[in-house]
Write a structure and sequence with these properties.
Elements: E1 3-7, H1 11-23, E2 27-30, H2 37-44, E3 48-52, H3 60-68, E4 75-79, H4 84-92, E5 97-100, H5 105-120, E6 128-131, E7 134-137, E8 142-145, E9 148-151, H6 154-165, E10 171-172, H7 173-181, H8 189-205, E11 213-215, E12 219-221
Helix pairs in contact: 4-8, 6-8
Keywords: DNA-binding, Phosphoprotein, Transcription, Transcription regulation
DNA-binding region: 126-223
Modified residues (4-aspartylphosphate): 52
Length: 223
Amino acid sequence: MNRILLIEDDIDLAKETSLALGKWGFDVELINNFEMILEEFIDKKPDVVIMDVNLPLYNGFYWCEKIRDISSIPIIFLSSRDSNMDLIMGINNGGDDYITKPFSIDVLVTKLNGIIRRTYKYNTSSTIMYYEDLIFDIEKCAIKYRDKHEELTKNEVRILTNLLKNKDKVVSRESLMMLLWDSDEFVTDNALTVNINRLRGKIKDLGFEDIIKTKKGMGYIIQ
């Protein structure tokens, strides 16, 4: 049974969501002390975090960054705001997905099942991939170039793995969206763009060239 840490200060919504997810076979833990979110995260050891953006004291983006300092566990944001800026902030701060309130429990369950399957059952024949002098450690979710390294989120790992496995071939945006979210029905095109740009930024921060090229109207390629 997969353990979900639900960080939601709307008590009624938290209980309703917890009950619904319980019927789908999830073990849901709720946060009781919003001043000690990081400590409760460490104590409860969840498989996935579902976190509201608007929280007491500090918002969800803040706590996501704190969790990312110690873990690459999947994080799904919930928010009553549907602006592109919130989506961008959520992904840039390390979130793996973003759901706007009010949401369907079926949509949430679909996303949870997909992210759990991809995170904990994602296999590849090798845990190390290379592009010239760039080293990509899939197992450690990190890229390294010379004496520098950058940690990657699960989505960034999947994107880079897929592009390197299809080196010299164009990978369509649609196939990448299916890889990341199973279906493009519940996500925006902008979410993929944010993930791609963040991955490009991390590669650039290492001092390496931009290896992900955009093929307009087609997708992305590494050559």
